[in-house]
Amino acid sequence: MMPQPRGRTPAITPRQRLLVLSNRLPVSIKKDDAGNLTAAPSSGGLVSALNPILSEYGGTWVGSTGVASTCERDDAEVRKVLATATRGTSVRYLPVFLSAEEQTNFYEGFSNEILWPLFHDLQSRCNFAPRYWEFYRRVNQRFAAAALKASQPNDVIWIQDYQLMDVGRQIRQKRPDCVLAFFMHIPFPAPDIFEKLPWRRHILEALLEHDLLGVQTPRDERNLVACIRTFLPGVEVEREHDYRRVTYRGRQSRIQAFPISIDFEQFAQGAASPEVGRRAFEIRRQLNGVRIAIGVDRLDYTKGIPERLRAFARFLRDYPATRGHVSLYQVVVPSRESITGYRRLMHEIEQLVAHINGEHSQPGWVPIHYVHRSLPRKELLALYRAASLALITPLKDGMNLVSKEYCAARSENDGVLILSEFAGAAPELLRGALLVNPYDEMGIAEAIHRALAMEPTEQRRRMMRMRAWIRRHDILHWRDSFFAALDGHMEVTPL
Predict the structure, then answer these.
(1) What is this structure's pTM?
(2) What is the CATH superfamily name and number for domain 264-472?
(3) Which residues contact 217 (CB under 8 A, 6 or more apart)?
(4) N or C of the chain: less Cβ packing under 10 Å?
(5) E strand segments, 75-178
(6) Which pLDDT does position 43 carry in this prediction?
(7) Which residues are catalytic?
(8) How many helices (H) and strands (E) would you count in the chain?
């Protein structure tokens, strides 16, 4: 069952349905014990923000299933399962079926061996294989064809993230007057980084086919505008209020920062439940009163997990009196483990944990508790409540919603957030968090020591600032701000 709209919902007229395009559909296709296919709803802010609009006004979500297509019979079964999942609603899930070869070259290749490291300022990890580009364009064309087939001329087509940057160009060629929007969930690099991309001009021209281009932070907006000015001769950029108006080859695009967020009330209410409170108490009891620093990350080299572990080891060496009194509870959610570099990263993390625990463990105390799996929501909330501090130190991040989740879960307004200054959330949370450079072991060690010694009154003042900001700027604020910026291109009814 789809969630009901909450709060202010953008009013799209019946003549303007919404089409959302993302690399993955908001459901996961799995086989049950009997071998039958089932569709399990995915969690996440994007799903909770957009599904209510699709449910109320009608529309289609286009995306791949994440499973390689093998035969037409299996594809037909997937379509049947998706139709059953949305029966009785005005939502339609439209799958784009990719072969194993397409999945490897488009997703694992161009998206995650070129764009992902490059856009996170880690260009030394890029593999600029020419075949990746051919598959990227081919798969983007498949997405564009699916969107054109499912849409009507007046529909709003909202494309999500770096895997689909060429889709808008291909839609625009066939439907020049449609309303096209794009949101980039990852950082956008500065010109000296972006220029390494052999297909940079093509990508920028494709992005400027959208009526609205959303990015996470003002820094991403500045970087994107700087790249446009550097690599597209003849472009005109004007500052208007809180956005940029870009004119290129007679077409205008609006570029604006829309920091994404979480459903604050959902996290806050869940964390305040008696069941979560009891579990948080149990976690603290099991650790015999040892204070907890928590890190929660998807397995990825951009998250700075090895650097964080080394910084925590530095903290233990520099502040030996804290040994036996604080432990790092590091959760790593498996991701992309079919890619060699990610398997190497997993082994590196495991070796570091073993080395640090072997060097510093004492009877009844282990410095690092390592969890390599995805946690149920209630268990994660209990960990957030049990932890005295959160150590969120990505090398680079588009936003980092874990930092906001931790704050939302601190229903008693205590706890300390240590946050990388290179996370997209840093500009929003700088008045409450302790900002650190993720490459600075000594700086992180000092921040941990400061957090553990921080007076309750200062903790409360800082946490209340961050919680108030996140409450006001939640996932629905993000969604509504984006649609408000589209008003000039949409026929909308009064709110």
Answers:
(1) 0.92
(2) Glycogen Phosphorylase B; (3.40.50.2000)
(3) 187, 257, 259, 399, 424, 427
(4) N
(5) 91-96, 156-160
(6) 64
(7) 185, 397
(8) 19, 17
